[in-house]
Each structure stands twice: as C-alpha cells, then as structure tokens.
Amino acid sequence: MQEGKNRFSDADVEVGLLDVLVTLAENVKLLVMGSLIVGLCALGIGFMLPQTYQSVAVLQAEQPTASLMVTAVVLDPVIDALGLAKDDTVEDARIKLRQQIKSAVGRNDKLLTLTVSARTAQQAQAIASAVLRQTFQESRPKGSVRTRLEAQLAEVKVRLKNAQDASQGLLNRLESSGAGVKGGAELARGYAELLNVSGAAQGQISTLETQLEGLTDAQLVQFPTLPQKASQPKKGLIAIGATLAAGLALLLFIFTRQALRNTTQNDTSSAKLLRIRKSLGLR
Prior knowledge:
Blueprint: H1 2-26, H2 28-48, E1 53-59, H3 63-68, H4 72-82, H5 90-100, E2 101-105, E3 112-118, H6 121-138, H7 143-175, H8 181-213, E4 220-222, H9 235-261, H10 263-280
Antiparallel strand pairs: 1-3, 1-4, 2-3
Helix pairs in contact: 2-9, 4-5, 4-6, 7-8
C-alpha cells in the first residue's frame, strides 16, 4: 500500500515539474523580451535623470569640526558667496545645502572626510572649497577667548625669555674656571632645570599658537577633488533592478494566467485522483 502511495507522489511531482517546464517554454519569449524591454527603458530613464557629482576632501580634524561644517555660521556665508539662494529663502537654501554635505570622522585614522554633492563637478568642488574656507575661519577663537589666549601666549613667551637668559648665565658660569666642584654640580642642576622649563614653555607656545591660528590648509590631506564621473544615478543598477523586477512580475503573471486556464481541468483531475485513492484505501 505504501509503495502505491509513493508511486502516486512521484507521479505528481513529475507532472508538476513538466507543467512548470511547459509553461516556461511556451512563454519564454514573453519572459525574456519583456524583461529586456523594461530594463532598456529603465536604462534610458537613467540617462534622462539629473546627474549628481561628488567632491571629496580629507583633513586632520575631529568631530567638533565636522559638526561646525553644517552650522549656519558656515553655510550662510557659503550660500551668499556662491549665490545658492536664488529664489529660495536663506533658510530653505541652508536646508538644501546641508543635505548636500556629508562629513564623517574615521574611527581608526581620525581623519575627517568631507563629501559634497552637486549637479555639476565644478559646483561640487566650489562648494567643498567654500565650506572648508569658512570652517577654517570659524575655527579661529574670537572675542574674549582670543584675548585670553593672546595674554597667555605673551606670558609664556616672557617666561621662556627669562628661562633662556637665566640658563645662558648659568652656562657662562659653568664654563668659567672659577666654579668649584660642589658649586659646579649645583649650577649644572640649576641649568638642567632651566632647560626643562624652557622646553615646557616652548611646548605651551606651540599649543597656544595652534589654537589661535585655528584650522588651516596645513591640516588638509586631500584638497577638494574635481569628479570626472557622476556618482548618481547608477544607471547600471537601475537597469539590472528593473530587469529582475520585470522578470519576477512576468513570472507571476504567467503562472497566474496558466492556473486560471487550468482551473476546470485541475478540478476534474483532482476529483478523479480522489476517487482512485478512496478505491485503493489511500488517504
């Protein structure tokens, strides 16, 4: 009995596979040609869509600089300098420009990558350059902060000058023949301490000068690029996606249509198979 049931199951599988193959063979032209036509149409539409170019700049900066690039103090002067507002308000132009700008700091290399998108390669590069210039300008301290840093810088420079003068005096005394062994050791120790003070002062001066100067071109690892090819739209991906989607849709249409055509025949076959199984005692 089990053997008969297995034979019927194998026969059902074979019939089902043959039905599928027959359906595909009868509609292969529709399936292939229809998918290709849709893909070619999508490719043509891709050529008609407006193109987008991306200019990329890389600099040595951290997350606060990336956040500064999309603030109004940076974007508004860029909009005004490049005439990006046109018929829009400054606020609307700022929103659009903010959508064109992407900035991210690498987790490992700690480099800030600025990516600017625009309708033309020249415009993308011009916007990226303007954003960098304005960011550099805004990174410099202003007002009371600048005054405080300048005062600290002047104080450290005076401290460095005094330390250098004192160390030079000690050096002259060490070189003189009148210093005894004990006195020479004390002078040498004092000279070494003054050298440490001078080194620390020079480090503070360098740090304060960097803070006052803000970001400059010296931090740029890569100047804004002039893209040669459009980054969007990706016409190849659009065509491939449309072709696959059309193929799936046509497959669904073909099998649905075939199922509707065979509804009556399937009902009759099912009734016959049911009678055979009942006669053989199968379920």
